[in-house]
Amino acid sequence: MNQNEQKKLVAERAIDTLIERKLIFSGMKIGLGTGSTAIPAVKRLAEKIRSGIIKDIKAVATSFQTSILCEELGIPVYSMNGNKIQGELDLAIDGADEIDPAGNLIKGGGAALLLEKIVAYNARKYIIVADETKVVPHLGTKFPLPVEIIPEARISIIREIEKLGGKAVLREGVKKCGPVITDNGNQILDCLWEPEKDGTSPVNPPEIEDRINSITGVVETGFFTKNKPSIFIARSDGTVEER
Ligand code: 5RP
Predict the structure, then answer these.
(1) Ligand 1, atom 5: nearest CA belongs to which residue?
(2) Which pTM was predicted?
(3) What's residue 110's pLDDT?
(4) For 15-37, how does the pLDDT look when each residue is reduced to its tens digit (9 = 90+)?
(5) Rounded to whole angstroms, how far apart are CA atoms 242 and 184?
(6) Which of 90, 94, 79, 147 is nearest to 122 (CA)?
(7) Where, in this chain's numbering, is substrate bound (predicted)?
C-alpha cells in the first residue's frame, strides 16, 4: 500500500472503530484536524452522518481547509467559544508529522498547529491517525518543529531558539511570494536540531514545548506533549496498529 492509501485506510478505520466503541456518538462535540490524513476521516464522518448512523454532531474545525470541507460536506461547524461547545470537546481526531515512542507529537506541517492544539488540549479523548512513516525514535531532527510567531518578533525568537540548540528558518509560501501567513495572520519558523552522535534525542519535547512557549512573541509550538493521544497507525502491508 502506498502512503496515500495508508492515510485513507487508517482514517476510515479509526472513524469506524470509534463509532463501534461509542467514542463517536450522536450529539457529541468533535474537533476535526487538518491535512491529508484528517481529510479522509472528515469525509468518512460525513458519510456516517448522511447515512443516519450519527446525528446532531457539533464540529470544531482546526483550519480554513477543514471548515471549507465541512461546509461542502454539510457538517455544521461551531466556534470553540460558542454556547454549543463551551470550550470543551468530547473527542478530537487529527494527523501528525512525527510520533515518538512516548506518544509525543510534532504537528503543524500544514501550519494549522495553533487551532489544532487548542482543540487537542481541550478534548477529553484525543485520536491521532497516521501512516507508518510518521513513527520515529525521537522528534525534531528530521521533520522540522513548526513554531507560530508574531512577525515582529522573528529575529529575537530565532536567537532564543538557537540558545535551545535549534536552527530556525522562516517558512516560505508556495504560489505566494514571501512567508507563509497562517490562518491567524502569523508566520511560521521551522526548527531543526542536529542528531546526537549516540542516537539519543537532542530535545526533551515536553520541556522544549514549555521553553519555546515562554519566548516573547511565540504564539504556539508544534510539540504536542500534554494530552497523550490514542494512535492508529497504518502499515504498508495493509494492517492498522493501535497504540
Ligand atoms: C497540519 C498538521 C497535520 O496534521 C500534519 O501536518 C500531518 O499532515 P498529513 O496528514 O497531511 O501528513 O499538523 O498543521
Answers:
(1) 96
(2) 0.97
(3) 98
(4) 999 999 999 999 999 999 999 99
(5) 33
(6) 90
(7) 34-37, 94-97, 107-110, 134
